[in-house]
Amino acid sequence: MPSRVYLDWNATTPLRAEARAAMLAAYELIGNPSSVHAEGREARRLVEDARSSLAAAVGALPRNVVFTSAGTEANALALSPGLRGRSGEPVRRLLVSAVEHASVLAGGRFPAGDIGQIRVTRSGVVDLDHLRALLADGPPALVSIMAANNETGALQPVAEAAGLVHEAGGLLHVDAIQALGKIAFNINAVGGDLATFSAHKIGGPKGVGALVVTEGLTGLEPVLRGGGQELGRRAGTENVAGIAGLGAAVKAALQALPEDAERMTSLRDRLGNGLRCIAGATVFAEDVERLSNTVLFTAPGLKAETAVIGFDLEGIAVSSGSACSSGKVQPSHVLSAMGYDATVAQGAVRLSLGWSTEPDDINRALEAWRKLGNTLLRG
Questions:
Q1: Domain 17-251 has CATH 3.40.640.10
Q2: How confident is the model at residue 373 (pLDDT cuts 50, 70, 90)?
Q3: Which 8-state DSSP code applies to residue 356?
Q4: What is d(CA 91, CA 14) in angstroms, rounded to the nearest whole number?
Q5: pLDDT 10s digits, 309-356
Q6: How far apart are the C-alpha atoms of 161 and 84, rounded to whole Å?
Q7: 277 given a catalytic annotation
Q8: What pTM was computed for the model?
Q9: Among 23, 35, 37, 40, whose Cα sits 20 to 30 Å from the Cα of 322?
Q10: What is 5-14+257-376's CATH superfamily?
């Protein structure tokens, strides 16, 4: 019986060998990283080594890295009304792109009435003219725009947005969870003031994330209070093993990035071209720059739930988009924001590749789609 093919890397990745080794070593330690004795200092060393690794990877200072339980918590921590913009005035509203992850669309700690949405184009890219108009029509804002969309893979114009936001006295938060390890990302180069990351998207463990802020940012209010951990920005004993795994995964992912990106781009394009030749399939956001590993497609009359089950029965793991809906297959809010009707949004299927994806995996996915297309869309 052939082995299964995993094509849902944007949902989560396998644990890298380097991360597993780092975690196993960390599990042997007994100290609390806040303790001052030798056992505690050894645990603290692992946390700080990982902090330095992530900081170096994204162009930040280690003291500006805050570890969290996940990317969702990191986003909630970032979306704080107490933040002070470059003018020194606190941000008083939140503007988010319409294609953000659900944890950003929820608005963090901003009241619902203080949250606005930025339109995107038909290709799923932020409409900078609309952002400019929204910034001009109100007080300083915190703006949240992801670096790369988790469903379409479309890269967003975060550097251009940063210029507009800063000119208006605001701050820019970048959800870089899908970008890290797939494209080069430097918080200073893109002009971000805050950026969020997640370990399990780059071969680290599930349940570990991080918020990175630029030097001098003030007004960040913790979500979890009670202890002085993470320089007072996030209470609670650090997940030492998980954080060690994140640090090791960051190093491994960045070392392999150039080679992995080139190889996956070739596989992605071959997959997209093959899908389009079967059952009238359409690949979304093909006309803009995308992640090297992501293909979101549909075909006339396709139902995502049926297609995902069909691929699964053929031994191939794919998804209908974001994996944060408690296992439910729901219409894509990303495609709705791009202007597609509900029928199209309900039929989108995402295939995402990773460092161990092989050409034969693409062959099997295309053969499965050929069978499914002929079966599901017949007549």
A1: yes
A2: confident
A3: T
A4: 39
A5: 999 999 999 998 655 554 555 678 999 999 999 989 999 999 999 999
A6: 18
A7: no
A8: 0.95
A9: 23
A10: Aspartate Aminotransferase, domain 1 (3.90.1150.10)
